[in-house]
């Protein structure tokens, strides 16, 4: 039966991967024109003493992509400006609130206090105060915007580079630009609404250090997360609380308080930790420096799945306290771990069936009812909503929380594969869960959630890897379980399954995954040819010129420092200044042979 379930999983995974790959390629070939189809994100632009970052980028791509390069937009470190804009919008919202209040009662001017949230400080006229503060912030915005535009230090060594065709962008995004593989790093640009602008200003070297630190932090968070939970739950013990806080002894002994502490406090403490976990993991992903919302969600989903695998699955099937489990795993050899865990698998079947009904079925029901967002909306409406803008934001359903929803579903894949052979009675509960999940999430995605970005199914390779990981875990645990039974001699027969699973994974990876990380040049050329035939007068430069400007600067006119303002079709590329570092042939500044060298 282990072979039956393994080969059935192979068949369904292969069929699904093939279908999704076909749908992705069809989507990319049929979708309407978008700026990210023509644009690549270039990072780690090397410094040049002769040219600014903007000139250096224009020069490099004019020389190395002379037939296809169109324009570029350097990346400004506008994080401070963004903070000022956000602050000014909040003050504008308060001004609108007091203005509406004054319109309803013109006989009395509204007042506020200048302290935190208007709770303390000097009492002043609200309309005059917020008008003055808004005017001050507008002046600060203008000053900061001028500084960003004029200060060379505000320009970071990265740029969005656009090309005249999809074919040219695909060639640039999928090739090495320099003999030094750490310079001129190119990758497909996220679509404009998918860009996470604050992380574009992080230097390349700093990103490497940040990711190392976050990897270490994730290790400790994953494997030692049980300790703060154990500490909090131990405090829920009456004797512990009375020992730490003896003056509360008389209060704790009250029947109602005693029942609450013993019955609810441990579960509430665990729930609070699990509620704040996704926020912690998303913050860690942002610190790592990923430059798109989709990549942030992908990384957070990977971290969350690792946490669930270790703390929910392995933690639940292990018996004893956290310290005892850790000591047992550290003292025994690696070959004994599957045996230790495998023996616990059948005994925990009832627990996981209950877990599926409580967390899975009830979670799906809560998803369709959306009680939590409903309660949060009414709380916001009662205490935070001041204007119609606030009400619209409070009513926003948001997008599908992929970073938490997908790993939770992957846990049920893992449970189904682990118990498919060991406890077949488990399978109907899994089937019911996935049937309900399909109906509910299909409805929510179509009718409820807003689409934050479009990735073209770029998440699927990660989903495939996690199912493969679940298969290998289930096979190893099955071998550990069988080795303790009378059929221990048949264990070597199962050794073939992990090998076949790994081979299947690499086959699918080489067969289908390139479609999720690369764009076929043939499809790019077909789409370019069709577009030139249907729209011969398309002004692509005008279409792209403002696509990748920072949102806080998008409505402002500022110097883009473009060097290709002459004839775009010319094969000779005129440049304002030359740099021997990026010019083939070693041309010299001021030489009469500059044009010939180019």
UniProtKB/TrEMBL annotation:
Residues 569-598 are annotated as: Disordered. InterPro entries: Csc1-like (IPR045122), CSC1/OSCA1-like_7TM (IPR003864), CSC1/OSCA1-like_cyt (IPR027815). The keyword Transmembrane helix applies. Keywords: Ion channel, Ion transport, Membrane, Transmembrane, Transmembrane helix, Transport. GO terms for molecular function: calcium-activated cation channel activity. Coiled coil: none annotated. Residues 210-481 form the CSC1/OSCA1-like 7TM region domain. GO terms for cellular component: plasma membrane. The chain crosses the membrane at residues 212-236, 256-283, 304-323, 411-441. The keyword Transferase does not apply. Residues 589-598 have a biased composition (Basic and acidic residues). Residues 37-199 form the CSC1/OSCA1-like cytosolic domain. It holds the Pfam family PHM7_cyt. This is CSC1-like protein At4g02900. The lineage of its organism: Eukaryota, Viridiplantae, Streptophyta, Embryophyta, Tracheophyta.
């Amino acid at each position: 039966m282990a072979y039956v379930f393994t080969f059935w999983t192979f068949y369904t995974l292969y069929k699904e991967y093939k279908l999704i790959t076909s749908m992705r390629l069809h989507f990319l070939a049929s979708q309407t024109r978008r700026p990210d189809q023509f644009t690549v994100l270039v990072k780690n632009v090397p410094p040049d003493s002769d040219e600014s970052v903007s000139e250096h980028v224009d020069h490099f791509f004019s020389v190395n992509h002379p037939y296809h390069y169109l324009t570029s937009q350097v990346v400004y470190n506008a994080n401070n400006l963004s903070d000022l804009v956000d602050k000014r919008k909040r003050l504008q919202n308060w001004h609108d609130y007091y203005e509406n209040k004054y319109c309803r009662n013109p006989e009395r001017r509204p007042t506020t206090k200048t302290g935190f949230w208007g709770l303390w400080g000097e009492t002043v006229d609200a309309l005059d105060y917020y008008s003055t503060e808004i005017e001050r912030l507008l002046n600060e915005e203008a000053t900061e915007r001028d500084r960003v535009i004029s200060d060379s230090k505000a320009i970071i060594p990265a740029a969005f580079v656009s090309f005249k065709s999809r074919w040219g962008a695909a060639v640039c995004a999928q090739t090495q630009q320099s003999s030094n593989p750490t310079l001129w790093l190119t990758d497909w640009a996220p679509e404009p609404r998918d860009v996470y602008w604050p992380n574009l200003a992080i230097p390349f070297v700093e990103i490497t250090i940040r990711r190392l630190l976050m990897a270490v932090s994730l290790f400790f968070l994953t494997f030692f997360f049980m300790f703060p939970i154990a500490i909090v739950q131990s405090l829920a013990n009456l004797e512990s609380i009375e020992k730490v806080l003896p003056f509360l002894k008389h209060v704790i002994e009250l029947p109602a308080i005693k029942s609450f502490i013993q019955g609810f406090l441990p579960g509430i403490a665990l729930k609070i930790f699990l509620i704040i976990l996704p926020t912690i993991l998303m913050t860690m992903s942002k610190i790592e420096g990923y430059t798109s919302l989709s990549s942030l969600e992908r990384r957070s989903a990977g971290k969350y799945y690792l946490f669930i695998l270790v703390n929910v699955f392995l933690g639940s099937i292990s018996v004893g306290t956290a310290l005892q489990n850790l000591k047992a795993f550290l003292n025994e050899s690696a070959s004994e771990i599957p045996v230790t865990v495998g023996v616990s698998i059948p005994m925990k079947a009832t627990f996981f069936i209950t877990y599926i009904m409580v967390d899975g079925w009830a979670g799906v029901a809560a998803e369709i009812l959306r009680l939590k967002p409903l309660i949060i909306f009414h709380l916001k409406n009662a205490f935070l909503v001041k204007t119609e803008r606030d009400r619209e934001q409070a009513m926003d359903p948001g997008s599908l929380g992929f970073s938490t929803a997908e790993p939770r579903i992957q846990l049920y894949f893992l449970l189904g594969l682990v118990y498919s052979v060991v406890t077949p009675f488990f399978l109907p509960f899994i089937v019911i869960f996935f049937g309900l999940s399909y109906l509910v999430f299909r409805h929510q995605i179509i009718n409820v959630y807003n689409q934050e970005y479009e990735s073209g199914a770029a998440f699927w390779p990660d989903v495939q890897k996690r199912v493969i990981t679940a298969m290998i875990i289930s096979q190893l645990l099955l071998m550990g379980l069988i080795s303790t039974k009378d059929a221990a001699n048949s264990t070597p027969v199962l050794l073939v399954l992990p090998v076949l699973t790994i081979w299947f994974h690499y086959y699918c990876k080489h067969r289908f995954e390139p479609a999720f990380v690369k764009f076929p040049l043939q499809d790019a050329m077909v789409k370019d040819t069709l577009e030139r035939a249907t729209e011969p007068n398309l002004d692509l430069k005008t279409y792209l010129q403002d696509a990748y400007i920072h949102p806080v600067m998008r409505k402002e006119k500022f110097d883009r420092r473009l060097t290709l303002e002459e004839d775009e079709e010319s094969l000779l590329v005129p440049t304002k200044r030359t740099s021997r570092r990026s010019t083939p042939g070693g041309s010299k500044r001021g030489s009469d042979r500059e044009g010939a060298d180019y």
